Inverse folding.
């Protein structure tokens, strides 16, 4: 019998250990898997020569894009409203529109060029002047008298004589052949990483057959094929993080516009707006949630009787598991349509609660009602609930009537007249609902930290003549403070990783605006919206995984630090 | 501990038993999985319901997640029929061709208009295509444009004056988004200020509630809670979705994975025959679509006939 017991405990122990190791390895495996999926985005571009088109996918070669088919030789670019850019070597460039022709200054666009080619999706121009390649953008949003503006983006010095030049159909990339029989590919986005292949025949024509295939022709008409492989960020990880001057934009911007399945447009993958959105949502949520949950934790941890605490704590712990999609739906259908009124009521409650609560307690005690005597606070705090509800109702009513008295008749109208327009899906709405979602989590951990401080410390302070509040404030709470900070960190981690509320309420607008009345786009919501449908081998998919890893890293670090703090607090308190 | 363990054991046995049972029950191959466009979701669901009533032995499953889901689903065989609110692009077609040694069977299913909608109380009646580009695109996408931020930037006398334009659109993976980007935004970049909603119904419901809202969606999602805008041509005529010349009209496609000619897949053929038939067409019309007049690929009837 004893043997059987021994065997059982040993096998159970093994089972538990095996299970936990499996979980740890599975987690590690997932992270490694995510890294493997995400890694190709950082791969450098490559150029290699192939012998036959079968080396690539068969269909690629047949899909020659007819570049500039309808344009005459000297017309390079046509704006959406009909301005044509015309040029020929030796003459100044011209903007032509119907009968008008506006010559361009040679400083804007050099006239002593030898070859010029469109590059990117009909937005940029690559011009060869002597031994330098210059890359220009055109933009219509900064134009004067409707004439498009010309802007020099980059100048790249190329070593040798160029005999043929071709612009990439989608990216700011050019391929050219030199007189010394060399094929080079220069990426204007990352000019230091130019690719070159030496061939043994003379080349006089070069064309991009598809975004990944270059065909070079010899004077006798033989074709050489080259495969160019580049991710959408051209092997430069800074394009995920730094502001980029994209084609057609007047200034450097952070943009998240993945444009899947767009054949002639440049996808834009700046992760900055999404990280900004995630942090903004999480910080707003904390702003709303931290006072609420910590206040609640201090009350339950310090003042509530043990019997009451045993009843209240599990109830709030249960709320931790409340599905956030339900909160999101409440926000979507109930809160968002009446956000202005909700906000006025909330302001009223926050402004009046302290005054009304204290006043209420004095009045009720003055009346001598037994159920709100001081000792009743410990005994049956729910008796205070009607009073609290009354105070909230009065505060909300005051807020609403105050808003109605504002010029314009409502908070929204008043803000509108002072130049603030509240978006239907805005960051404050997200912050409030997200704050509600993380409140039980923060409460649960903070309360645990407070409760872990031995009560005899507070009792000792009482015995030495302090009031209960002094005892808690000066003895218990300082000891519990690191635990409370850990609670806030865990709450932050949860808010940063939360998805459903953000998908439903944030509007998913990739703008970086500090205003709390504008929408935002978070990493998690972008993953939820785009990952299921992004093609598996696309740069979009890989960038999404990079963001997934960033999000994982952020929450992992925050949660680990919080857990370490909690463990240390537990050790310290145990010694007391 | 022992009791707990025993209980756990019993529960897990029950679980696995039910799992096995469900597996064995699923063996019947009389099932049809249709995946694809959110725009066509309502219609395909209605078709599926009626088709099931007519052929109760065929199990039919509809998944509407977005057009981009169709090519991979057909490629992997998780669905045999897919719908798309845009045409397959060259990459998707290539991938299919390389895998199956033949192009997918493409059917021009229906014609649908993308409509611009505003709140019922918005006095705006029509917009020009240039204004559409300004409202929904990044500055500079369609000619020389400045984005109207407030309603008075768009119409001087708008009663919404200082309210911001709140712009609603679809997410980047939707076919409607891609169609709209090409047809209305001159192939340029959609504005980052556009609120991206996962479904067409969400746009309609939200615009119905937001006085300063404007959005685009497929006709089939519109309701009486929103006002459909006309599109003003340069010559001053205002076109509504019913007009044949309405500029934002597109064809919706249906793709079949199996080769109906050689493999003769009975279920797909039955479904296509139903879709091309009287009952299927009636549902199509009542869902707000029309039947393509000039088809740029095969018609459902043609493919159904080829089934033999």
């Amino acid at each position: 019998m004893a043997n059987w017991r021994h065997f059982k405990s040993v096998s159970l122990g093994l089972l538990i250990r095996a299970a936990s190791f499996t979980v740890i390895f599975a987690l590690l495996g997932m992270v490694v898997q995510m890294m493997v999926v995400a890694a190709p985005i950082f791969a450098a571009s490559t150029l290699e020569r192939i012998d036959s088109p079968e080396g690539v996918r068969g269909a690629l070669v047949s899909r020659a894009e007819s570049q500039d088919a309808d344009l005459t030789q000297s017309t390079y670019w046509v704006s959406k409203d009909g301005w044509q850019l015309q040029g020929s070597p030796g003459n100044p460039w011209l903007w032509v529109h119907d009968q008008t022709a506006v010559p361009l200054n040679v400083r804007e666009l050099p006239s002593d060029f030898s070859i010029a080619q469109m590059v990117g999706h009909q937005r940029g121009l690559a011009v060869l002047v002597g031994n330098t390649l210059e890359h220009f953008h055109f933009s219509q949003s900064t134009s004067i008298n409707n004439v498009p503006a010309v802007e020099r983006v980059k100048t790249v010095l190329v070593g040798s004589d160029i005999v043929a030049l071709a612009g990439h159909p989608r990216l700011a990339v050019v391929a050219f052949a030199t007189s010394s029989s060399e094929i080079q590919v220069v990426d204007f986005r990352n000019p230091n990483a130019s690719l070159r292949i030496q061939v043994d025949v003379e080349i006089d024509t070069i064309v991009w057959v598809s975004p990944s295939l270059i065909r070079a022709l010899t004077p006798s008409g033989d074709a050489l094929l080259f495969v160019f492989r580049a991710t959408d960020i051209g092997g430069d990880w800074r394009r995920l993080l730094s502001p980029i001057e994209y084609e057609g934009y007047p200034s450097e911007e952070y943009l998240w516009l993945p444009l899947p399945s767009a054949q002639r447009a440049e996808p834009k993958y700046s992760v900055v707006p999404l990280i900004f959105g995630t942090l903004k949502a999480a910080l707003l949520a904390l702003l709303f949630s931290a006072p609420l949950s910590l206040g609640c934790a201090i009350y339950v941890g310090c003042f509530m009787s043990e019997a009451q605490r045993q009843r209240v704590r599990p109830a709030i712990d249960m709320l931790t598991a409340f599905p956030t999609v339900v909160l999101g739906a409440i926000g979507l259908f109930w809160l968002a349509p009446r956000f202005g009124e909700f906000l006025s009521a909330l302001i009223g409650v926050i402004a009046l609660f302290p005054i009304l609560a204290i006043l209420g307690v004095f009045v009720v005690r003055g009346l001598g009602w037994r159920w709100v005597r001081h000792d009743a606070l410990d005994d049956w705090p729910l008796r205070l609930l009607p009073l609290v509800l009354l105070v909230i109702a009065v505060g909300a009513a005051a807020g609403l009537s105050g808003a109605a008295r504002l010029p314009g008749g409502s908070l929204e109208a008043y803000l509108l007249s002072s130049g603030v327009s509240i978006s239907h899906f805005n960051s404050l709405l997200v912050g409030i609902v997200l704050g509600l979602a993380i409140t039980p989590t923060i409460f649960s951990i903070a309360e645990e930290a407070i409760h872990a401080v031995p009560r005899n410390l507070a009792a000792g302070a009482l015995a030495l003549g302090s009031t209960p509040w002094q005892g808690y404030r000066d003895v218990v709470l300082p000891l519990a403070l690191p635990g409370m900070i850990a609670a806030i960190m865990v709450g932050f981690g949860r808010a940063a990783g939360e998805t459903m509320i953000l998908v439903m309420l944030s509007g998913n607008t990739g703008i970086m605006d500090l205003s709390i009345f504008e929408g935002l786009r978070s990493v998690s919501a972008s993953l939820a919206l785009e990952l299921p449908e992004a093609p598996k081998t696309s740069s979009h998919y890989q960038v999404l995984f990079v963001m997934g890893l960033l999000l994982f890293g952020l929450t992992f670090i925050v949660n680990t630090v919080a857990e370490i703090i909690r463990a240390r607090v537990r050790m310290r308190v145990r010694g007391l | 501990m022992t009791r707990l363990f025993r209980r756990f054991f019993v529960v897990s046995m029950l679980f696995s038993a039910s799992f096995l049972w469900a597996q064995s029950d699923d063996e019947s191959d009389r099932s049809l999985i249709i995946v694809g466009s959110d725009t066509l979701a309502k219609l395909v669901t209605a078709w599926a319901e009626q088709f099931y009533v007519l052929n109760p032995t065929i199990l039919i499953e509809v998944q509407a997640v977005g057009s981009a889901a169709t090519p991979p689903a057909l490629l992997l065989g998780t669905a045999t029929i897919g719908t798309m609110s845009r045409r397959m692009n060259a990459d998707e077609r290539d991938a299919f061709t390389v895998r199956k040694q033949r192009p997918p069977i493409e059917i021009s299913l229906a014609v649908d208009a993308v409509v611009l909608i505003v709140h019922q109380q918005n006095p705006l009646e029509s917009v020009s295509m240039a204004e559409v580009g300004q409202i929904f695109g990044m500055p500079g996408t369609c000619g020389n444009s400045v984005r109207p931020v407030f309603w008075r930037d768009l119409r001087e006398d708008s009663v919404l004056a200082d309210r911001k334009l709140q712009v609603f659109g679809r997410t980047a993976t939707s076919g409607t988004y891609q169609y709209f980007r090409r047809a209305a935004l001159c192939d340029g970049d959609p504005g980052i200020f556009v609120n991206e909603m996962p479904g067409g119904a969400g746009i309609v419901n939200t615009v119905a509630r937001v006085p300063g809202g404007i959005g685009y969606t497929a006709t089939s999602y519109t309701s009486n809670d929103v006002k459909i805008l006309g599109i003003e041509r340069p010559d001053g005529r205002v076109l509504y979705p019913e007009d044949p010349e309405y500029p934002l009209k597109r064809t919706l496609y249906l793709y079949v994975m199996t080769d109906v000619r050689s493999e003769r897949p009975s279920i797909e053929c039955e479904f296509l025959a139903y879709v091309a038939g009287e009952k299927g067409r009636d549902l199509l019309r009542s869902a707000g679509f029309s039947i393509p007049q000039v088809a740029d690929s095969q018609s459902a009837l043609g493919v159904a006939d080829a089934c033999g």
